[in-house]
RNA sequence: UCCGCGAUAGCUCAAUGGUAGAGCAAUCGGCUGUUAACCGAUAGGUUGUAGGUUCGAGUCCUACUCGCGGAGCCA
């Protein structure tokens, strides 16, 4: 493919180049027109003057919104053009003419856009979000590699529930029931005993009928697990990762954050270390602020928002009551009523973005927990083997990619952070 | 699953129980530096579905469908 990407136009001033893209919009008067072009890397404009090329000028007038075009012209610097550079057009090849494009540049409602998600993602705001999502993903991979983690992906089809609590999507596995994974954690633990420090990154599925701005039925989770890490090591790893991701997005995606009108001072304010609050301290904070809350209850979304508003960085809440957490969470030796785990709550009311903790490494205690949670022991024999053969203290966490991206982008809803969201009552297109 | 709100032109929205309208998009025309360009004209409707109240229903009532927001659960 010949051509230059719009984001690289600044390196070609004075040269004739070809942009391979689509007609985003057209403006102009009777004698001059501006073709606003997009190619996925940005926007620029092609300029046509009637007096110079009357035939090309008239042909260009017939090109409709979102037609695919290859536009050739000479690059000039111009502050009035989107991106600061424009093309003095010499030739246009219409690759495909579009008829009746449904998504206009004016206002649309959520339902209309969601039904046309495959076209909605072409708009500047949506493509900016998706570029930031990609940047977050790359930053996470980069962070893990810099810290000697190996990517070891977990299976998506699983024979049983990971934690036995959440509702699962059931599938027919050649006659046997199987389930779409809600977490790669148990497999991560096995991989960590083999490779030391591992992470997996993939889609997970929750069939629960959650209907809020923070929930998807299918979402992407970055999960890490490290042998010989205690809960403190684990929290340190998490805050360094989140900090690394934010720094890289600020550095490489400032143009996209600007398209989203994101107040980046909120992101720049995030400093290490993140504040740490025990569950008990968090309960006291809520009570002090006049909220009714009893020790032993789990936090709801409004409670998380109240706590997060106290800080301008994500905040860890650690040592939750043992009986509201998953079966594999290790009790604190100093207080068996609480576990060595922590949730990371994002600022500005975005809620929990990470859940993690130290895992039970003693065989007997884990067997007892499986029984208490009424989980089928035979399905977990392989998991118990990890405690039989060379068990070590280990910790890990899972980060919800969409919630992190929603916070970084300052979005109202996680549905815009993934190209094709799967939500309660909506899985088209 | 529960609570609340909504559905009118392609889109975004108006319309005291009394002739369904505007902006944008579309189509046609005008305009030599536009920035969701602008200006003029044309066309565009079984008011989500079914029933009810009324002389008369977009408007009031009932049911249903679909959507949105929130709760719970979680990331």
At a glance:
The protein is an alpha+beta fold and 429 residues long.
Can you give a write-up of this model?
With 429 residues, the chain is of the alpha+beta class. It has two domains: 6-96, Nucleic acid-binding proteins (OB fold (Dihydrolipoamide Acetyltransferase, E2P)); 117-417, BirA Bifunctional Protein, domain 2, CATH 3.30.930. It has helices spanning 54-61, 110-115, 117-120, 124-146, 185-195, 231-252, 254-259, 265-268, 279-288, 301-308, 363-372, 381-388, 401-409, and strands spanning 16-28, 32-38, 43-49, 68-77, 85-96, 150-151, 157-158, 170-173, 176-180, 197-205, 218-227, 276-278, 315-318, 331-332, 335-339, 341-346, 351-358, 394-400. The strands form four sheets. It has an eight-stranded mixed beta sheet. A hairpin with a 7-residue loop joins strand 4 (68-77) and strand 5. Helix 4 packs across helix 6 (231-252) and helix 4 (124-146) crosses helix 13 (401-409). The longest helix is centred in the first third of the chain and has 23 residues, at 124-146. The model has no long low-confidence stretch (mean pLDDT 91). It binds one RNA strand of 75 nucleotides through strand 1, strand 2, strand 3, helix 2 and strand 11.
